[in-house]
Amino acid sequence: MMPETGLFIVVSAPSGAGKSSLCRRLLEACPKLRFSTSFTSRPPRPNEVSGKDYHFVTREDFQARIERGEFVEWVENFGHFYGTSGKAMTQALQSGGDLLLDIEPRGAKAVKRAFDDGVFVFILPPSLGELRRRLETRGHETQAVIDRRFAQARSELAEIGWYDYVIVNDDLDAAAERLKAIYVAEQCKTNRLRDSLKQFMNE
Ligand code: ADP
Ligand code: 5GP
User: Does the beta carbon of 105 lie inside 6 Å of ligand 2?
Assistant: First the structure.
């Protein structure tokens, strides 16, 4: 039984909670799920691949895309622009593919409003102390940036209440299992399978 359109999962977390690690695991485990590559004006980090992790563009290019209405949502975060292409998202979903979005809460809320759909998952670190430790061991940012990310974490945590699911990323394997379980369960929701169910009954 196949749903007509794809579903999308939005994952948000304070920076350093382990969201990238968990998203990577989920994508490896689920070939039907594709990562929604955002646009950003932030410079690439070592190991980041343009067109895969992000579409890296200049601030001017990003602003021109805002003016052309290309983004279903965009934000300015840590001094850089981040945004999701509405067209890319709609095309992927209409062709039946499932999408994973890694976006922060303001963008997540805008996507929820625009599509009136989606599965919203918030990743929590085991504690704020552990969050700071993970930010520091990631090792590619200055102390000032780490402090700013930590301060932002507190305001993002205030948004947790409207998300559908919360995962505490204590043990990475266990947290990855929980994220996969959410995706698998959402694929089985009756309202995603209405058309296939009708066909099934009419056969
Ligand atoms: P985010 O994408 O949320 O900023 P990352 O996935 O980059 O976070 O993880 C931040 C750091 O914490 C990385 O060094 C990562 O290896 C580590 N990490 C992630 N999950 C766990 C975990 N469950 N236990 C210990 N360390 C973790
Ligand atoms: P980073 O610079 O660490 O890759 O990302 C910083 C923050 O921006 C993360 O919280 C990430 O989820 C968020 N982000 C990445 N892409 C988008 C996007 O397209 N839209 C929004 N709103 N946030 C994004």
Answer: no
